[in-house]
Amino acid sequence: MEMQNIDTQIKELLLTNTSLDFPFVKRTLEGLPNKSEALKKNLQQKLEQHLLGFAEEVSKLQGTDRYQQCCQQAKAYLKNWMTYIEEVPLSQIKKLCKRTHLSFLDIGEDFITPTTLYAYAQKYVKGQDAYLKKLSLCLYTHYKRLRTSDLSLPKANLLAYGPTGVGKTYSVQVLADVLGSEFGVINCNSVVQEGIVGASLTDVFAEIYQRTGQNLAAVEQSVILFDEFDKLFYSGTYNDRIINELLNLIDDNGKATFSTSYYNSKVSHTISTKKILFLFTGVFDQLNKARINGFVSPETKTGKKEGTFYDKATREDFLKVIKKREILGRINDFVALKPITPAILKEILLGDSSPLRSYEHFFKLHNTTLKVEEKAIQKLASYAADKQLGVRGLNSLLWEILQQDMQQVQIPTETTESRKLCIDLPYLKKRINH
């Protein structure tokens, strides 16, 4: 196992050392299986030292012609790797850039496509492939419009609908982050709540403006998500002022005005929304109470959201809820998200981005190895699905289960014995409230 691990580590170091001569790298990889463990460890140390030296050099070259040469060299190196060895996913390129101090967008521009973005998002969000495909294309066209300064390229505002806690917002956050786009969320439920005097859809722009060090250009190129978008159209919360404000924002030549505080006074800013990508998410359970595509939703007969027709809602079905063609005319595409199943939750718990990883790290800091048996994983997934906790609820569930043991940890010393914490079915039975 150790030999396999060191082979993997050397391969990763060879990939990351983009300043190396590629023919040498190819020969090294081909001869790696025949090397002794001692030679492999020696090679690993040399590659680590070379990488540290290269990263230190790059950190001093920012903004120079030499830095651009390093970027071009890295792109050529990666293309050779993909031609002669194997594909390199965006997640690996991002990791490479972090270790070498090269900008991901400077390197990744030759490798970012709708397909590679989709593959990247799949590492973080499970069970929502249809949504991730459409979202990846929307974010890609947004990225390309900004990167090339060509606003004649197509722009697609997407509406995603489905249950809560299935990754609608998180998916956007993941893709916006990898593309270096500022991301803001408008909570439509908060905007329409009574008692919030003067709440505006444009408040999010003030947040981004402050977060980016008062960078108006960053605000004008951001990705904005209208969360709980359907709440704007409930009969008890419908507000003409907010709807008109919405139309002005998402218009092809839209404008937005927001205020920020400067000492004791208010400063007003007006921006163009032409470059902003707008996304819309919500449950839209009103669709389940209506006739979808000429059929009665299964919910009206069984009381369950089976989603057979709900998933196939058309633009005309949404018109029954949103009621304004002007709004629908500015939304290019629609996609339904699936309910989270036990199988999806199990895959999430076992994956690299599992919420379990943070708890494993916490216990490791306190000289404790956390192990969760497979049957316990299955039980957690089934319980979370049955209680409709969603993906976000997994972390709360793990906190509830593990907090007693977390409270009992101690700072390890030289004499502290390592211990193991095993989560099995009897353990869960004591911790989960049924």
From TrEMBL:
One of its GO terms (molecular function) is ATP hydrolysis activity. Pfam families: AAA (PF00004). Residues 159-272 form the ATPase AAA-type core domain. It comes from the Bacteria. One of its GO terms (biological process) is proteolysis involved in protein catabolic process. InterPro entries: ATP-dep_Clp_protease_ClpX (IPR050052), ATPase_AAA_core (IPR003959), P-loop_NTPase (IPR027417). Keywords: Hydrolase, Protease. This is ATP-dependent protease Clp, ATPase subunit. The lineage of its organism: Bacteria, Pseudomonadati, Bacteroidota, Flavobacteriia, Flavobacteriales.
